[in-house]
Amino acid sequence: MYQNRLCHTVSVLLFLFIISCKTKTNGPAYTVHEIIKADNAGDIEKIISLYTNDAILIPAGKPNIIGRDSIRNNYKTIFSTSKLDLHPLIIEVNQSDDLAVIEGVISGKVFILKDSSTMVVNDKFLMTSKNVAGNWKIHRLMWGKNE
Q1: Mean pLDDT of all residues in 3-15
Q2: What angle do CA 12, 15, 16 make, to 5 degrees?
Q3: What percentage of the chain exceeds 90 in pLDDT?
Q4: pTM of the full predicted structure?
């Protein structure tokens, strides 16, 4: 009887853990999956809709990219020269009210259109998100090589 109750308790806890690990369709981690999906599709309008008006991209070793217009121009340059095939791995999400910090890794490939070469991507990222009128938007995004 004790073993049956223990097995049942473990099963229930495992089920609850699995459910809690799934990405909410309105949570901050969902935004990571949406931005990568839009990146891979080359969908600039979807990408821009996922950023706050005052968003800042902070690429390692390069100047910050400030505001949606500059972010749009950055993506236009990326998509005019390459095709992306990226995959996110979320390591941690820390959320407090309408702010969240998400840590993760992006892996995949960038296909260079000019010469059909391929670059392997293995970057780490740190993203802050804001809940804006019920939608999680990227407020700051910092990334660099995952060495």
Answers
A1: 42
A2: 85
A3: 81
A4: 0.81
Output b/e per residue, 21-31; b: 16+ Cβ within 10 A. Answer: eebeeebbbbb
Cα–Cα dist 69/74, whole Å = 9
Q: Which of 43, 31, 123 is nearest to 79 (CA)?
A: 43
- Which residues have a Cβ under 8 Å from the Cβ of 48 and sit 6 or more positions away? 68, 71, 72, 75
Q: Domain extents for the chain? A: 27-145
CATH topology classification for 27-145:
Nuclear Transport Factor 2; Chain: A, (3.10.450)
Q: Cα–Cα distance between 132 and 52 in angstroms, integer?
A: 8
- HSE of 80, CA atoms in CB hemisphere, 13 A: 6
- Assess contact for 52 and 138: CB atoms under 8 A: yes
